[in-house]
Amino acid sequence: SEVGPQKERVVTEEEWLQKWETGNIGFHKEQRHPLLQKHLDVLLNGRSGLRIFFPLCGKAVEMKWLADMGHSVVGVEVSEQALKDFFSEHSLPYYEEPVPEISGGKIFQSTSGNISLYCCSIYDLSSSIVGKFDGVWDRGALVAVNPRDRQRSVNCIV
């Protein structure tokens, strides 16, 4: 069975970046996730103007959807290609700046200011850099993280 070996598969950062560079991103979905649409009221809980975190965001279409509703979106993704594709595919103007606290880290910020995407490892982020969040949307980040690193990645989010 493929399930056993795949369950413990370790994907290197280089392999992940290669997937984005070659467009081998079958995990990316062009449509909003139906569970987020169905349970959006649970995430929002009647609140507006939330800060919502997207770990390993890729170019998730839900980021623009929530930003269009007036929420602030903060994502983190190691692939610069994914972040540039996100802004390009949604025709969103943006600028990029280095993140001084993160060696080699960059932030891609929409000119409207409500979408901030960090290009770095999730393990390089801290609340002193990105602040606090009102909610988190993880469509598949946890399963993309190597099994031995899952608890560490959860600790970065909470």
Folded structure, characterized:
- By secondary structure, this protein is α/β, with parallel strands linked by helices.
- The chain has a domain at 48-157: Rossmann fold.
- The protein has helices at residues 3-7, 13-22, 34-38, 40-44, 61-68, 80-89, 127-130, 141-144, 150-157; strands at residues 51-54, 72-77, 94-98, 106-110, 115-119, 135-136.
- Strands 3-4-5-2-1-6 form a 6-stranded mixed β-sheet, with helices on one face.
- The model has no long low-confidence stretch (mean pLDDT 82).
Instruction: Name the helicity range.
Output: 25-40%
* Beta-strand percentage range: 15-25%
CATH class of the domain at 48-157: Alpha Beta
CATH structural architecture of the domain at 48-157: 3-Layer(aba) Sandwich
Biggest sheet record: 6 strands, mixed
- What structural class results from the helix and strand content? alpha/beta
Please report the number of helical segments: 9
Mean pLDDT: 82
Terminal CA distance: 34 Å
State the low-pLDDT regions, or none.
none
- Looking at CATH, the homologous superfamily of the domain at 48-157 is Vaccinia Virus protein VP39
Q: Remind me, CATH topology of the domain at 48-157? A: Rossmann fold
Q: How many runs of DSSP E, i.e. beta strands?
A: 6
Pfam family, one: TPMT
Catalytic activity: S-adenosyl-L-methionine + a thiopurine = S-adenosyl-L-homocysteine + a thiopurine S-methylether
Organism: Xiphorhynchus elegans (elegant woodcreeper)
Protein name: thiopurine S-methyltransferase
